[in-house]
Request: fold
Amino acid sequence: MQIQVNTDHHVHGGERLATFVTTDLESGLARFGGWLTRVEVHLSEDGSGSPEDKKCVIEARPGGKQPVAVTHHAGTVEDAYAGAAQKLARALDSRYSRAHDHKGSDSIRHMPAPEDPELVGVIEDEPRG
Reply:
């Protein structure tokens, strides 16, 4: 899984911030490692002057599927990142669980094909006696 950290010119932290974010995401998303190919983190400041003007957008790209993107606004870069990382973990848990958990049983898509397709849906009468 490749992790890329981008900041705008208002966000300071440099290599230390990028190393922290990379390490945190690698450990936090380790269970999705074989599923995700790339994660992009964008840290920026809105410049609106509001108390929550720091923004973090994280986009996770699973192989062969649509990307998952989350956004979080906060008063500090650290809080914005932490909130977005939590949202991403929940979103991936939800998507990954739905894709691989079928309420304890196999999905119909994973069942073997019937031996005789002509008998699919045919209900046989049981002999009474």
